[in-house]
Specification:
By secondary structure, the protein is of the alpha+beta class. It has two domains: 205 residues, Cytochrome Bc1 Complex, Chain A, domain 1 (2-Layer Sandwich), CATH 3.30.830.10; 193 residues, Metalloenzyme, LuxS/M16 peptidase-like (Cytochrome Bc1 Complex, Chain A, domain 1). A hairpin with a 5-residue loop joins β1 and β2. α10 runs antiparallel to α11 and α11 crosses α15. The protein is globular, with a radius of gyration of 23 Å. The protein starts with a strand and ends in a 14-residue tail after the last strand.
């Protein structure tokens, strides 16, 4: 298979294209290298606010109805999301609809109208989204974790923003954030599927020509983690919800593959350490898992669980004991091989459609700064040894660096510092 096409325009926009002759669909994503962590204190929630409000009308589609009708005429799928470090507008269509898809996505990132009346209505929708997040304990306990673990940095505040700040946003705030964010050097365009490089570039050119040159806002200061312990009562809950997290490698770390495999061993499947110990042997919870959250300059290895409040302290104690066993003794060879198989399988599955290939291209370019072939990524996984995993476990699973947020019932959670020492 040919290597993906990659170029950077004179204005700084990166373009990634991977033709896939065996498919009939194509996926395109316009990625903005700015997420919630790049907001100033007065801008919290604006990256997400824009993700919503650009859909309220553009120069070519002045009303939400016209934009929705244009989306439906594509016959495929168009969506958007905002993360801590990116915002993305993407779609997947049959190949003959590619010109229309590029035009529509281009309108969203270059020509939103920010009509005052439409923004008032959409602001109410976002406030409902914030309320819904607060009502979902697994979402809220995660926000509590971010707020504590990265306290004092933009990574700490919610992507959705606060109800108080979002309530004050209108066309002026949206336009100001858009003007200094949606600029040529901040954009990455990724595409994969039934398309050809030169025709795609020709379709893209009039959109890129409209992008402002140069960039106003540079990324903020480095984010540092801090240990913390937070117990929060919630009278409306039947179960306690928990997030525990250790500092972990960033996107560029040479230990990133070992850290991912360590997460698999701890809580990545039904045979993982935590699932077997906490659910199967002890019956302490219904669900428990772990995952890695890497960013440009920091990361977290997070463990999540929910259980009856009376069992929460034992669950935490046994989780810390299992982390200590991995830190002190390492893992068995068969455990590492199972984790590698899970990682390889997930990697291959992520390559088997035009949309997943597009997401993979963009993820590598935005977060890693390089494009690695499937074979290179597989080799990185295979190269991890039991000694590597032990070394990384000893570096990461340090109780003194642990952050923990617990969302409990009306009586609270009552996790104590001594529960965190195995």
């Amino acid at each position: 298979m040919a290597e993906p096409f990659r170029t950077v325009t004179p204005a700084g926009t990166e373009i990634l294209i991977e033709p896939l002759p065996h498919v009939r669909s194509c996926a395109v994503g316009f990625w903005v290298r700015r997420g919630s962590r790049h907001e100033a204190a007065s801008e919290e929630g604006l990256a997400h606010f824009l993700e919503h409000t650009v859909f309220k009308g553009t120069a070519a589609y002045p009303t939400p109805d016209e934009l929705a009708a244009a989306t439906d005429r594509l016959g495929g799928h168009v969506d958007a999301f905002t993360g801590k470090e990116v915002a993305c507008f993407y779609g997947k269509v049959l190949s003959d609809q590619l010109p229309e898809l590029i035009h529509l996505l281009g309108e969203l990132v270059t020509a939103p109208r920010f009509d005052a009346e439409e923004l008032v209505r959409e602001r109410s929708v976002i406030l409902e989204e914030i309320a819904q997040s607060e009502d979902q304990p697994d979402d809220w306990v995660s926000e509590l974790f971010y707020g504590g673990f990265w306290e004092g940095t933009p990574l700490a505040h919610p992507i959705l923003g606060s109800r108080e700040q979002v309530s004050g946003y209108g066309p002026a705030e949206a336009r100001a954030f858009f003007d200094h964010t949606y600029r040529a050097p901040n954009l990455v365009v990724a595409a994969a599927g039934a398309l050809e490089v030169q025709p795609f570039l020709a379709l893209l050119k009039p959109i890129l020509d409209r992008l402002p040159k140069g960039t106003d806002h540079a990324p903020g200061a480095l984010a540092r983690t801090r240990p913390f312990l937070l117990n929060v009562p919630r009278k409306d809950l039947q179960q306690a919800n928990l997030v525990m997290g250790f500092p972990a490698p960033d996107h560029h770390s040479p230990d990133r593959a070992a850290a991912h495999l360590l997460s698999h061993v701890l809580g990545g499947g039904m045979a993982s350490r935590l699932f077997m110990e906490l659910r199967e042997r002890r019956g302490l919870c219904y669900q428990v898992g772990s995952y890695l959250s890497p960013y440009a300059d920091t990361g977290a290895l997070q463990i999540t669980a929910s259980c009856a409040p009376a069992q929460l302290r034992e669950l935490v104690q046994r989780t810390m004991a299992e982390c200590a066993r991995v830190r002190d003794r390492g893992v068995e060879a068969d455990e590492l091989e199972r984790a590698k198989l899970q990682a390889r399988t997930s990697l291959v599955f992520s390559q088997e459609s035009s949309s997943s290939r597009m997401f993979s291209l963009a993820h590598q370019a935005v977060h890693h700064g390089e494009l690695r072939s499937l074979d290179q990524q597989m080799a990185e996984i295979e190269a991890v040894t039991p000694a590597d995993l032990l070394r990384v476990a000893q570096a990461l699973l340090d109780p003194a660096q642990l952050g923990l947020s617990a969302l409990g019932t009306r009586r609270g959670c009552d996790i104590r510092p001594q529960d965190l020492v195995a």
